[in-house]
Amino acid sequence: SALVDLRHVSRIYTADDKQTHALDDVSLHVGETEFVSLIGPSGCGKTTLLRLVAGLDSPQQGSVEVDGEPVTGPSHERGYVFQQGALFPWATVEANIATGLKARGVYSQQKARVREFVDMVGLSDFAHAYPHQLSGGMAQRVAIARALINEPRVLLLDEPMGALDSFTRIELQDKLLELWQRLASTMVLVTHDIDEAIYLSDRIVIMTPRPGRVSEVIDVQLERPRARGEAGFLR
Ligand code: ADP
Ligand code: ADP
Question: ABC transporter domain location, by residue (predicted)?
Fold first, then answer.
């Protein structure tokens, strides 16, 4: 059965007497260890869908379950990475990554574990650096490590590479694949970059311009590891 399970979900926003159907009767299932990308034009409800799975918002209709449990609020079981890292500016790389653990009250062997994740995202030389000293790609790696250190059942990524230059983006894509394989985690990625979706995903879900509808599910079952050239054919 699905790890992430949305059934007939609707989310309507009301502002100034105007109703926006951000999601309209959307169903989506993501299996354990699957890497799924959500693509679709701006405003089709991708962020709304991620926020519902994260427990940052709730639907008016339908059900959202992760691992068979209804989502009722945020949890370390569902890591979230924003387009721009949202790091604590006054805290070092190490301290930013450690905040994930602290929030859970895990103190034993915290230092070693934080170090492990600093190294895993390739920031060994920047463990004591502050966010303003990091490039955009480095900051996103910190945000990803901060979410992953909690061993979430699913990592939700909302255009994490959207603000990066293309070279840095390619680096981070490879890092994300490496982490996904190493930690056997489940990934749901929102992206505007079709090449990125093809390169990273097992499955691509297209959302249409009509409010929220998940129109098509394209199975991209390619053998891994995959040559980067294969993702380039749409260019
Ligand atoms: P993106 O295309 O990058 O997802 P959006 O502009 O659609 O960016 O939305 C960014 C965030 O702003 C959303 O997560 C949503 O919560 C909020 N937002 C979007 N539209 C509105 C709105 N009309 N009123 C209030 N908040 C909004
Ligand atoms: P996407 O991520 O695909 O760009 P969003 O999920 O951000 O789409 O938004 C879907 C629709 O819902 C858009 O029309 C957006 O303006 C609207 N919306 C999102 N968040 C809010 C909000 N907090 N208040 C009002 N409208 C919102």
Answer: 4-234
> What single-letter DSSP state applies at residue 117?
H
Task: List the residue whose alpha carbon is closest to atom 5 of ligand 2.
Answer: 45
DSSP secondary structure of 171-215: HHHHHHHHHHHHHT-EEEEE-S-HHHHHHH-SEEEEE-SSTT-EE
Residue to mutate, 10, 20, 50, ligand 2, most ligand atoms under 8 Å from C-beta: 20
The tokens describing 156, both together, are 């939700």
Q: How far is the CA of 6 from the centre of ligand 2 (A)?
A: 18
pLDDT tens digit sequence for 99-126: 878 666 666 678 889 999 999 999 999 9
Query: What ipTM, to 2 d.p.?
Result: 0.69
The model's pTM: 0.85
Backbone angles phi, psi at 206, to 5 degrees: -100, 130
Ligand 1 atom nearest to CA at 159: 3
Q: Identify the helix (H) or strand (E) that includes residue 10.
A: strand 4-15
Other Cβ atoms closer than 10 A to 159? 20
